[in-house]
Every structure is written in C-alpha cells, then in structure tokens.
Amino acid sequence: QVYLVESGGGLVPPGGSLRLSCAASGSIFSINAMGWYRQAPGKQRELVAGIGNGGSTNYADSVKGRFTISRDNAKNTVYLQMNSLKPEDTAVYYCNVFGLLVTRTRFESWGQGTQVTVSS
Fold first, then answer.
1. pLDDT tens-digit readout, 17-32
2. How many C-beta atoms lie closer than 10 Å to residue 48's C-beta?
C-alpha cells in the first residue's frame, strides 16, 4: 500500500508564490512518474506538470514559465513551485504517483488534494 501526503496549499494574492510538496511512503520498490493535477469547481481534473524518473518534465501550456516541478528520489517526494500565480490557478491540487510495489506490482496513487486559492 502507498500513502501520499500533500502540503503547501493556501491563500495567496495574485502574483504570489506557493510551493506544494507530496511525500510518498509505504511498500514502494520504485517510483516512475510523478505529477500534479488540479481541478477547479465545475471543471475536469487536468494535468499541471509531470516528471519522469530520469528528470524529464512536461507542463500544461497555461503554467509554462511560471511553475516548476521537481523531485527528491531519496525522499520519494515531488514538489511544485508555483510563481506569478493568477486567479485562474485557483483549484484543488492533487499529486499522482506511478511505480512498483515491493511485490513488483504496479501501482498508481493519488494524494488527498490541497486547496490553492489565488485572490486579493
């Protein structure tokens, strides 16, 4: 079983910054891809950013140049640095992790979600 604990959300004015963290624990053998998704009220969940185990990254066009995803493999943790935040970034942010359990079974896990609100 895999547990994801997210932190770092909150209320920030437009132009501000936040850093989200997501730590994975449990019966993990290895982690492949890690990513962040978000879901705003009345909208579908969308990919914000992803990072592979080799460090390759991809971003939604709406956040390119403002958000940076990174990971610490020793801590099984993924981060999302969000700068120049806009009101349209307001959403619940979820981390997502793919990997292998110690049983060599593939897993996919989701975090509980953390609210990010950008408002003056």
1. 999 999 999 999 999 9
2. 24
